[in-house]
User: What shape does this take?
Amino acid sequence: MNILPGNMRFGAGQPVKRLEDQRLLTGKGQFLDDKPEDGALWLHVLRSPHAHAKIVSVDTRAAAAMADVIAVYTGADLVADDVGTLPTLMVFARPDGSPMNVPPRRLLAHGIVRFAGEAVAAVVAKSRAAAQEAAEAIAVEYEVRPAVVDPVAATKEGAPVVWEGAPDNVAAAMSYGDAAAVEAAFAKAAHVVSLEVVSQRLVPSAMEPRASIAEVEKKTGRLLLHVQSQTPGSTRDLLAEAVLKRPKESVRVLVGDIGGGFGQKTGLYPEDALVAYAATRLKAKVRWRGERTDEFVGGTHGRDLTSTAEMALDARGRVLAYRVRSIGGTGAYLSGAGAIIPLVLGPFVQSGVYDLPLVHYEVKAVMTHTAPVGAYRGAGRPEGVFVVERLMDAAARQIGIDPRAIRKVNFVKPAQMPYTNPVGQVYDSGAFAHMLDRSAKLADWDGFAARKRAAKKKGLLYGRGLTSYIEWTGGRAHNEKVSLHATAEGRIVLHSGTQAMGQGLQTSYSQMIAASLGIPLDKIDVVQGDTDLATGFGSVGSRSLFVGGTAVAVSVNDLITKAREKASHLLEASAGDIEYRDGSLNVVGTDKRVSLFEIAEKENGGRLSVDSEGEVDGPSWPNGTHICEVEIDPETGITRVVRYTTVDDVGVAVNPMLVTGQVHGGVAQGIGQALYEAVAYDAEGQLLTASYQDYCLPRAGDIPPIAVTLDGSAPCRTNPLGAKGCGESGAIGGPPCITNGVMDALSDLGITSITTPLSPMKVWQAIRDAKAARALALA
Assistant: This one.
């Protein structure tokens, strides 16, 4: 695809301040819980206290008889009413070749509960307090069964079975590459490096917990669902067609401001669908708001991948073969992307930025008696990059060469672009060695030794981490539809099916439109989150700007073309003689002109409108190099990230300030993954980290200054803007960079691997054990 020249890239490169912030920071945001109650009923769900149990009976009589209770629903009620289940992507096979087989995800458990926190019953009452009190009066008799919470343990013979259709707990599996050729390469390698690598399970932590409101329009009978969703269009379709089994045109999904999504708010949740079901049954407005604990026990989690990884290398450090065996936990039920994350998205990037001649990947998606795993910032790509980058550092240390040198020996070269990686994904552009060299210079690579000596004088261990990452972005849809309108009131209105959740889409879209139409920013309205106005794939996989923005670019050109045709009739001239500039259309060489908004005034409804579709040729591949430095107090095991430098290739950055903010946020989440965050279940399947008293997040003081440099020297070739996705890059480069830094600091003690999070206790224990082993060896 041809990249637009610099002067046609719709205002690219301008650090326009976020237009959203004034409204959001002054309390004028339209978050879901801000909506007035207006006599709405409240729904509350009763959750299972057990991870695995047969539901013997559910007695709702006491709850139904309580004051202000309107209705009580059980799983049996929904089955009797033919309420559908939440679907997942069923395109994979089990290891024996049989079709993928997973339990149906019902809105309320029926017959069996499969994780602690699964919804068992729902109460609708006149107040939230009344619904909560009534839920406590529901008597559920359980027959408790053994549970398995560790995906690796779930694959062992004799493990408790999550679903009888998969007695080995393997929902699906995939393999890539040539096992025999890889084995032969390992046999002749000068060096073999292996690691056990774990991307632990995480809880997404948006500021705003999930909530939803549903009502039935009295005049039309249509169902309105107000919900936090990154994908309003598919949320509508799933609710209508899969769950309620009604035409999708009879449902309208409305999304206001979202206080953070991070992938967790990608799909339809049982609570959202329950609210909609209750509203249709009761012909009343019904609302639900989750507490923070509901997010921990009932929302989707992220990551949960355990890998055994090996590299075969020659004497120079050139990789001959790469072998990874992974087990990805899915939880008890598979979310919409529950299988695709470990089976596809991780392998897409698992070779990283390297030209690896032979690979063999084996991946299993394994069910456990835990909350479902779903999308979380990066969704598979952080796990895949984590594996290869940990191996690269381990190999450099084992062979005794510079971590930059081993990467340069193995980098895909610019001359190889477009490059097809070992699993068939095509990198359209990238200058990986350039990113590394530039980052090393900006990070003052040569000054590291002096900083390490200074830290040693203070009694601290000091290390440096390096990661060269790549990311696949775009989701599964390469097109997006928008509508663009010029109004008689002098405004430009964009309707888009993408969804804002903190990325700054109002700013970037407005910036593009303003630059191309010559219209002031304050005359532009960006409307998202209304399926009556626009539907599309939504905002996942860092696709909003490079796919959604491409649609905006097409719509602007379409609007100008249509305006020229209208102006040619009004000005009695050929359309080819009409010139558009700054909101006006004039006949070239004359003073005859008409404004864009005067044309709109003459249209039916006072609007000049176009419906446009933008399509890109394929995914984009943002990449870059992160370098950090860490210090460790050996007496406490406490690790601090003290320096962090990135050079990120996002292609053409429409708004560099927004991109820099996205990198900052992603790195902060990467620091959380590397050092602090981890979900923990006990052997019975009870969540031990069900609140922020037990689940540790990084705070402002834990985040160092982050020096971000954007490098646009290798623009994307799959879209006309030249842009690459950027929203998840920091969360992909961050975890291996920090982990490599900690392992570098500990390498003098002979410590080669610790699983994340690298908590003070783990680090302190590793230091203590290493010193004890050294003392024993010298004794």
